[in-house]
Amino acid sequence: MNYIAYYRVSTKEQGHSGLGLESQQESVRRYISGTGGKLLKEFTDIASGSKDNRVNLNEAIWECQTHKAILVIKKLDRLSRGGFKIAVRLEELGIQYIESDSPNDNELLKNLKLAIAKDERQKISERTKAALAVLKNKGVKLGSPRNLTNEGRAKGAKAMALKKELNENNRRARAYAANLKANGDTLQSIADNLNGNGFQTSRGSNFNPIQVSRLLGCNSQQKTRAVIPIIKGASTI
């Protein structure tokens, strides 16, 4: 049996220090070794569990599809704190996932854990909003003081300009992909066409079918229009 390992830590400090990451790796690797299976690849994200659109999680899912592999995580909260979205997505793609800390859980237990995680996330959000409201009523200025300096404003303006450029490239790639989809092209074919015409992801890598699916999903309410392909290597999104 083939396996893909996925790890997640919430902060850069945890990612750099190994705090929390090593225990995940030890648990996952021990489980896979005990099954006699093969660990094909490992992926790690440094991101909040409330964010489902994580770069390396998407890559891990893609590898599971490609190699017909099982996704292994230490605990379910490493996969998501946002409820059932990730679980539904994996089910739709035909991908099985296992918690190395409790590999014998059935679907009922997994769904119960997801529901508890979602409830806890909502409670944390409510407590945070309530605390911020109290501070605001006391006249405390919220936000980072670093953003109020000239340097902070300059960085903000630069980030906004970059975001505008990336959004424009996204629109061009999205419209091009939508045209291909309307012609009956598969996600793999669309990815090949995007890559062949110089389109790239925001991280400068080639598109794969999962990324194409997400790109088209963002365009579900937009009207398809013709786009002239750009010269290879001339644009990144």
UniProtKB/TrEMBL annotation:
Pfam families: Resolvase
Domain Resolvase/invertase-type recombinase catalytic: 2-139
Domain of life: Bacteria
GO molecular function, one term: DNA binding
UniProt keyword Ligase present: no
CDD domains: Ser_Recombinase
Matches recorded under InterPro entries: Resolv_N, Resolvase-like_N_sf, SSR_resolvase
Keyword field: DNA recombination, DNA-binding
Name this protein carries in UniProt: Recombinase family protein
